[in-house]
Amino acid sequence: MKAFLMRHFSTLWMFKVYLFLYLPLLFMVVFSFNSTRQDANFTGFSLRWYEALMRDTKIVEGFWLSIQVATVTGLLSATLGTLAAFVLVRYRKFLGRTVFSGMVNAPLVMPEVVIGLSLLLLMVGAQNVLGWPESTHDHQNAGGLSPIQHSLAAPPGQNTSTTTDTYITDEPPPPSRALAYASHAPPTPRNSPQ
Q1: What residues does each domain of the chain span?
Q2: 186, 161 Cβ separation under 8 angstroms
Q3: pLDDT value at residue 1
Q4: Are the C-beta atoms of residues 136 and 1 closer than 8 Å to each other?
């Protein structure tokens, strides 16, 4: 038994690590087909949440925009990476090779959070200095705040959305509002007579 464990220890360890990483994802996929909001027990198969997702135009538009940005970014990255690799392999010695090689390898070792924060600061600076990118009424809500600024300024738990196409909250709607929730119609206020 000990010889078996010594021979297959790395395989068993790798299996446990992959199980630890991917089992929660498997549970998330399975419970995305749950018919209720409960995530502790599976109450029945349903496509209800995927139907609600496809009806939410903001999320669908954001998804397609993400696909477009990823396609352009992937093509540009592959082109620039191929050209940079060609230069580094073909020309062994040139002025600035160390700096160029460092710039090419920096994204591989720099955490994504630092890159994201740097891009955020760059875009805010560009908007303050150049006025670009311009904000339109589609990207701003009441008070002239962007959606991110508005969500940071609002108290926790308060709905900051100004649109009425979806109502997704942490708690299920009361029975009196279930029909409005399911049809995505504006709900009646809680303090008004039903």
Answers
A1: 19-52
A2: no
A3: 75
A4: no
Residues 6+ positions from 151 with CB-CB distance below 8 Å? 160
State the Cα torsion 30-32-35-40 to the nearest 10°. 70
Q: Report the 10 Å Cβ neighbour count for 6.
A: 9
Residue 184 in contact with residue 55, Cβ under 8 Å?
yes
Tracing tokens 């710039």 back to the chain, one arrives at 103
pLDDT value at residue 178: 46
Nearest to 36 by CA among 178, 192, 187, 194: 178
Task: Please write down the HEC assignment for all residues of the chain.
Answer: CHHHHHHHHHHHHHHHHHHHHHHHHHHHHHHCCECCCCCCCCCCECCHHHHHHHHCHHHHHHHHHHHHHHHHHHHHHHHHHHHHHHHHHHCCCCCCHHHHHHHHHHHHHCCHHHHHHHHHHHHHHHHHHHCCCCCCCCCCCHHHCCHHHHHHHCCCCCCCCCCCCCCCCCCCCCHHHHHHHHHCCCCCCCCCCC
The series of mean pLDDT values per 10 residues for the chain, 194 residues long, is 81 92 91 82 87 91 95 95 92 89 84 84 87 58 49 48 48 50 51 53
CA proximity to 50, closest of 37, 33, 25 = 33
